[in-house]
Amino acid sequence: MSEFVPSNIQREMEVYGYDTVVKSHCRMCHGGCGVLVYLKNGKAKKIAGDPDCPINHGTLCPKGIASLQLAYHPDRLTYPVRRIGPKASGKWERISWDEALDTIAGKINDYKARFGAESIVMGYGTGRDNEAVIYRFANLLGSPNVLTAGHFCYGPRIATSIITCGTNPIVDYENNPRCIIEWGNNIVISNPDEYKGESFSVALEKGAKLIVVDPRMTRAAARADIWLQLRPGTDAALALGMLNVIVREELYDRDFVENHVYGWEPFVERVNEYPPDKVEQITWVPREKIAAAAKLFATTKPAGIQWGVAIEQQINCADNDRLLMALMGITGNIDVPGGQVLFQQPGIRNVGYFGAHRMLSDAQRAKRLGGDRFRLAGNFGIINPKCVWDAIITEKPYPVKMLFFISSNPLLTRANADEVYRALEKVEFMAVSDFFLTPTAEMADIVLPAATWLEMDYIGDFWKRHGYILPRRKAIQVGECRSDHEMLNDLAHRVGQGEYWWDNFEQALDWILEPLKMTWRDFKKLDYLRGERIPQKYRTVGFSTPTGKFELYSTMLEKWGYDPLPRYREPLESPYSNPGTVKQYPYILITGRRIPGFFHSENRQLPWMRELNRDPVVEIHPDAAKKEGINEGDWVIIESPRGKIRQRAKLFPGMDPRIVSAEHGWWFPENKDPGHGWRESNINMLTDNSYANCDPAMGATHIRTLMCRIYPERLEGDVSHE
Asked: Which of 120, 311, 545, 638 has the fewest CB atoms nearer than 10 Å to its CB?
């Protein structure tokens, strides 16, 4: 039995006949949940939440419970393969790891010699704690181009918080916030980033006041003290309206503003441009509710804002984040217990240091695709995806010859999917590391079998800002699957980076932990480590910004040529920006509603998860459905100026009749044809990735709202999906 398991768990093992149990930490979504993995004869048989874990306290979501269905799925890729014939042919041959990595290394070295390291683009999706090794490999190679979800997911929070207050402010649920704003986030469904829904729910049970900002009636909105049902895409205007009330009625923390804020006077001038009556017209939220929410948040201490990705996948991405931080800051809720805390990690070598960002030369950094256009993103090592697709298709500003995607499925998860397909079809060479032959992997030349979280040793939550790190202990081995960390460590030696890597990846873990005078073997005997908690650090050391203060007026954005003050931009496709379009496409379409069993395009192979969500669903208000002749359960066509898809109608009265809400990430693994029907219900067939429709500083693609029309599929005479 495991030496890390308490005696009560060992007794349970004896009763049910398990050989051993491994304490580890899940990564089926953003990760963090402690788990107990029960094994018999070397095979995992059961997964349960670890009650001793400070992140989830024994709770576990459906995805975590279904981890075994992923690890042992009969369609899982368990050895490297090479494509035979044309792209998306669906024909593969098995090859060895040596042949696969030698081939990939040969292509890397050849393209670097002939076209420069910048012609090779590494990419990852909403990651598997692999971002540090991917950036290390790319930076040491000399490629400034790492394609991530970071331009519109979590990355903006980090990039904007760095220039505003030094690091990402996290709600301190441990110390009982008395008021919470849940903004652009559905934490009990998505369990995002640093957070788990359990802590939020406990805070509400303890009596915390709740303000919810969401166009839809979610579970949280149903129990909120104030529900701000805004027009999708108008978050920045709503925040400015709330700030206007707080400033006008002098509800702000005067000491914090006078002693720790930079740019107060110009900031006040900007928020004065957004009185509640004007904001009501923009957002559809009654001015009385705007004022009530502002007063409740400003006067109930301590308070925090539970924010999420919905506010970042917009043209106002960076300003949305900055405005929410302004609400946190001027109300005196920054770095106070129960407020929005600037947690410190244990004293390890962090992700940025491991990623070798400083080892990328200035000359190569200057070649980052889109770096001169999206300078806030470039400062954080992030690129806009369209810059890559353009470089492949047009070969400008230089050709991209090779893609290496790790845990990423951009055909489903990036805007303007048709353009993504054209780029993947044209690129000369592509490698993919994944669990399955996804629609994106089927476009590759070589696909590598990635390990799940159950099959690796790693320092979990290494990249997060909640102050914890936790040991992820390897429990099983499936086929020839290898972790991305081990794979890139091996590949690095083959492309000439060996002096900067290790003989095996456990040595890398030792190196990360070395400042603590600890090895991986030491660390994995612990449940977790936590950084020191020092409230209101800014009172003695200031903020880690150029001015040393909380920057409402951003000196960095000013230096890069952007508006240093946050503002509201009307989306290019909205009821007010293009009346001609609205006549043909009368509904606002929300994309990306979270689904409990899926993680973006993942888990549609897993029986338990698919039982929860059989078909892609679009929510329609009953009044709109009646107008369009749509009944509950009908297959309907959703059409935008860029294309059309089909999803199944669900009548939902919990939103404005002018809005419809669709699911994202849909493909059909049960469809055995090449591509698995990736075009059929993929919301990104409808979204726009034009540069004009991106956040000007961060490059975030505005995919969360667009205009559409919707009608029964039977009017087109299409064959039912059933």
From this structure: 545
